[in-house]
Design goal:
By secondary structure, the chain is α/β, with parallel strands linked by helices. It has helices at 25-33, 56-71, 95-111, 154-167, 176-182, 198-207, 236-245, 277-285, 298-301, 306-314, 339-348, 353-363, 368-391; strands at 9-12, 39-42, 73-77, 80-83, 118-121, 138-142, 170-173, 189-191, 221-226, 249-254, 269-273, 289-292, 318-320, 334-335.
Length: 392
């Protein structure tokens, strides 16, 4: 068998390095790849077109994207660079902007020390660029059903998804539900469950340092949520009901709050904003109970939240609304689907050595390093297979 290799990875990311959480799968996998080869991470081109009617949210999104674009190409560390392209939603496929993007990408590939990289796609809005960029393979990460997001044209987004599946040498699914429904649309498929930085989260759970913001006297329990507060994922009314019903509990939320106004104005609710990924484990570990108050919609039906494995590695009781991926975590979390159930379950949530051991045993081997090795082994096989088919 011929020896196969690749000289780098070009990733069209699903997030923006400069203002999103660094815990997402594409960024985690790129971190692991950069231990061996150069990585160029291109900040998300986005699927949604901001609307001026969104007022402050519209301005916030425009300003942060302009700040990102102004940074251009930056080497973050050895073998890892980030590129922000000039991107105008709705106009990216015009001849001038498309050619400018292609030229900028090719120049950045050279700066990063690559010639013929693997292309990793986390969001298919870049599909129109792929034929113009030399590559050995195209991998498509089908994580979420982005076409169900607000402000996204469902039919256009779904067409991009299908076109990319036909173009990709490998489509990687992270949710069993989506994998089972869509695998027939792809050339090659892989189900890749999300990973976790297990050692870091376990260590934080054992140390249980309490950040200064959470050092509050006279509190019965501390209830924590870490992640973005987004209208498409979070049950806003559920949070309001449980916070209001349990004034003796302290609720804290770490992550961007994308709801309008002061929507949960209670003394026992703290909104701490986004924290660096390096501090996420510490904030999770401060909780007596960790929660996931999801909506019941198509987005959540197709989700497999990374924070679930992080919560389990921390080793705390977890209370969550139901989503299908929980079928693979029975007896490790508590499910509550109404405010009344949630309140009752929070009151009765208790940890134990047996529960902590079971939670951690479930995720101990699910590290990002192991996930990356699994993908890399398959990449090598596909490179060999592709080379043999070209020679025959």
């Amino acid at each position: 068998m011929k020896k196969a290799s690749f000289d780098g990875v070009l990733c069209f990311g699903g997030e923006d390095w400069w203002y999103h959480n660094h815990g997402h799968i594409d960024l985690q996998m790129m971190r692991e790849f950069s231990n061996r080869v150069p990585v160029l991470y291109i900040n998300s081109l986005g699927m949604r077109i901001p609307k001026a009617s969104q007022n402050s949210a519209f301005l916030k999104r425009i300003i942060r994207k302009l700040k990102s674009i102004s940074k251009g190409y930056i080497r973050i560390r050895n073998n890892f660079s980030v590129l922000s392209l000039l991107s105008i939603p709705g106009y990216n496929q015009t001849l001038f902007i498309k050619n400018l993007m292609i030229w900028t990408i090719k120049q950045s590939i050279k700066k990063s020390g690559m010639k013929n990289p693997i292309i990793w796609v986390a969001l298919p809005s870049c599909e129109f660029l792929l034929d113009s960029i030399p590559n050995q393979l195209v991998l498509y990460q089908r994580t979420d059903r982005f076409e169900t997001e607000d402000d996204v044209d469902y039919n256009k987004a779904r067409k991009l998804d299908l076109d990319l599946k036909k173009k990709a040498d490998l489509t990687i699914f992270c949710t069993r539900h989506v994998f089972n429904e869509e695998k027939h649309e792809c050339k090659e498929v892989l189900f890749l469950d999300h990973g976790v930085d297990y050692i870091d989260f376990k260590k934080a759970g054992d140390m249980r340092q309490k950040p200064v913001e959470l050092q509050v006297e006279g509190i019965k329990k501390i209830i924590g949520f870490v992640g973005g507060l987004d209208p498409i994922t979070i049950d806003q009314n559920l949070i309001i009901e449980i916070v209001k019903a349990l004034p003796e509990y302290l609720f804290y939320f770490v992550g961007h709050d994308n709801f309008e106004g002061n929507w949960c104005n209670f003394d026992n609710a703290l909104f701490l904003g986004k924290k660096p990924y390096s501090e996420v484990a510490k904030y999770m570990a401060a909780a007596d109970v960790l929660i996931m108050p999801w909506l019941n919609n198509e987005w959540i039906k197709a989700c497999n939240p990374i924070k679930l494995k992080e919560y389990l590695a921390i080793g705390r009781p977890v209370v969550t609304t139901y989503f299908q991926e929980l079928d693979y975590y029975k007896n490790l979390v508590s499910i509550a689907n109404s405010p009344e159930e949630f309140i009752f379950t929070l009151k009765n949530a208790r940890s134990s050595d047996e529960l902590i051991k079971a939670q951690r045993d479930r995720v101990e081997k699910e590290t990002w390093k192991n996930k990356n090795s699994e993908v890399e082994n398959l990449i090598i096989k596909l490179i060999i297979k592709k080379g043999e088919s070209l020679e025959s």
